[in-house]
Write a structure and sequence with these properties.
Ig_sub, immunoglobulin domain, five-stranded antiparallel sheet, mainly beta, eight-stranded mixed sheet, 349 residues
């Protein structure tokens, strides 16, 4: 008589051609070669273990076999981390738990392929382990992380965990001093970073919000936590000169940056060109004689330098010393008188 038994539970499964266990997934088959085969349908991980075929002779004979059941990995909802919201500067630990046979390995990577920043400024593309520790998290850590479980039995599985980092607004202004002519189109720019997303707008000197429409056009382009703010003035008028403030605020704070828009003298460049033309005509009349005037030399480069100085700062007047260094003076009457005197000399000649 032949019987099949489950060794670890000492359960008799079959005797001869009869199934003894109440497990409907167990079956027995017999061939003409006196072979009894134990059959299991819909194999489960719980079926893993030792089985024994026993022949009731005197003495009894038996043979054992081990059934190993491999199971693809599965990620457990608990204690695996869910999406997290943290303040910038805090420490973060992401957890991932998985089952499977053999036991799966856990690999972390960022969904977008960016490097994972760890302690001591270490950057890696992937890291193994059931936990991912990020000390002093910052805005660059924000994004989706994938925990991937694999054990060689397909398919591998993954879970997305989104890390959201909250921080108050921060504004940077590339050009804090902008010059423009009357009638010119000008663009003022600020760059802001904040999360949760910030409210952004421009104000003028007295705190009034710059209106949208007419000569003013305000545009905001955002990408994740970064915002580019632009204020376009289509045609600058005298009343538009002054200070503009770009404001960014969210639930964690508020900050601003200031841009000063100043007036560039509109006709200085044209006057200097006209002055140079008169000087050249005077030289042709005098032949090789040299016309002497107040600091107006026969030097086109010098004239170009003077034209550059005229638009450097509306509040200061600049002149060049003999060593070609810029010297600033707060006496615009001196420069104007020099230009007028020079002009008079050319007119007289």
């Amino acid at each position: 008589m032949v019987a099949w038994l489950r060794v670890d539970t000492q359960t008799i499964l079959t005797i001869q051609n009869n199934v003894i266990t109440k497990n409907h997934r167990v079956g027995i088959s017999f061939t003409e070669k006196k072979t009894w085969q134990l059959r299991l349908k819909d194999v489960r991980e719980s079926d893993k273990g030792w089985y024994m075929c026993q022949i009731n002779t005197d003495p009894m004979k038996s043979q054992m076999g081990y059934l190993d059941v491999v199971v693809p990995p599965d990620i457990l909802d608990f204690p695996t981390s869910t999406d997290m919201i943290v303040r910038e500067g805090n420490n973060v630990t992401l957890r991932c738990a998985a089952t499977g046979s053999p036991a799966p390995t856990i690999t972390w990577r960022r969904e977008g392929g960016e490097k994972i920043m760890l302690a001591n400024e270490t950057e890696v593309l992937t890291i193994e382990g059931a936990t991912l520790n990020i000390p002093r998290v910052n805005r660059l850590h924000m994004g989706s992380y994938l925990c991937i479980a694999s054990n060689g039995v397909p398919p591998s599985v993954s879970k997305r965990i989104t890390l959201i980092v909250h921080f108050p607004p921060m504004i940077s202004v590339a050009n804090q001093l902008v010059g423009a002519y009357e009638g010119q189109k000008i663009v003022l720019e600020c760059h802001s970073e904040a999360f949760p997303r910030s409210i952004n707008y421009f104000t003028k000197e007295k705190g009034e919000i710059v209106p949208q429409g007419g000569k003013f056009e305000s545009t905001i382009q955002d990408n994740a936590y970064k915002v580019d703010m632009k204020l376009t003035i289509k045609s600058v008028s005298q009343s538009d000169f002054g200070s503009y403030t770009c404001v960014s605020k969210n639930s964690l704070g508020e900050t601003d940056g200031t841009i000063k828009l100043y007036r560039l003298p509109h006709d200085d460049g044209n006057y200097l060109n006209w002055l140079e033309g008169r000087r050249r005509k005077g030289k042709q009349k005098k032949g090789n004689s040299q016309i002497e005037s107040n600091n107006v030399e026969d030097d086109p480069d010098g004239l170009n330098k003077r034209k550059e100085l005229m638009v450097l700062n509306p509040d200061d007047v600049y002149d060049y010393s003999s060593s070609s260094q810029i010297v600033a003076s707060h006496h615009p009457v001196i420069l104007i008188s020099i230009l007028i005197a020079s002009g008079m000399n050319f007119l007289l000649n």
